[in-house]
Specification:
Layout (H helix, E strand, L loop, with lengths): L10 E4 L7 H9 L3 E4 L3 E5 L4 H7 L7 E4 L2 H10 L5 H4 L3 E4 L2 H9 L13 H11 L6 E6 L5 H8 L4 E11 L4 H10 L4 E4 L2 H13 L9 E3 L2 H8 L7 E2 L5 H16 L1
Helix pairs in contact: 6-7, 9-10
Length: about 260
Amino acid sequence: MVTHKPLANKKVVITRPEKQSKALAKQIENYGGIPLLFPLLTIKYRENNEDIARKIEQLSQYDWIVFTSINGIHAFFKLLPKESIPILHKKKFAVIGKKTANVLSTYGFAASLLPNNYTAEHLAEELIQHANESSKVLILSGNLSKPLLRNKLEQAKFPVLEIVVYDTVQRVGIQNEFITFIQEEEIDFLTFTSGSAASVYLQLTKENNVNISKYKIACIGPITAKVFTDESINPTVIASEYTSEGLLNAIIKYYEEVKQ
């Protein structure tokens, strides 16, 4: 049990999709904070898609399977026919993040490659070092994934196929509810774990002429933070470890330094 309560009575908003919010919410509570869940996005798997199904049927051709997120894993295994699962035991897996590796293990597979830095750029660099030059790479991604990983591998002359297996979309009809929420709640921190959530936040507040200068913002890493800095908004904290734990630690560090 955590006895140190640096977030005592602090209201921390979690904007990530609801299913992914529970662990962070529990951690906030453990440190005395009050988590407020307001997901700006929702995840939709691309099921019953004939084009994707045809591509996945070619699974045996690939040596490496790459997942950049937990959502990609869940979507892939929903799409994968049961009779194709034995083929996976002959493949190597590369992932971004320990949590992604942990989710992969729940399906019975271990990550062969997990970079220390949780970015697509570092994953590409390490995969180029570890894979044979003739290795074929299959990337399972979302609709908002940037092409950096695929581009770097293609520049290194690896045969690459990227399949978009899920969509990250703005929740429908949340505009009025969200604006009322942030204006009426006494919020201490807004947290953002993706650039897409940050973009939705900026869009909603701009369209409704909300003065956001009073809100403290916490970003999971520099890529998410860049969405704000591109609009001349400096996040209050940016996590140095690109995980929900790192995000929480950055907020705790902020309050501990304020007290000094």
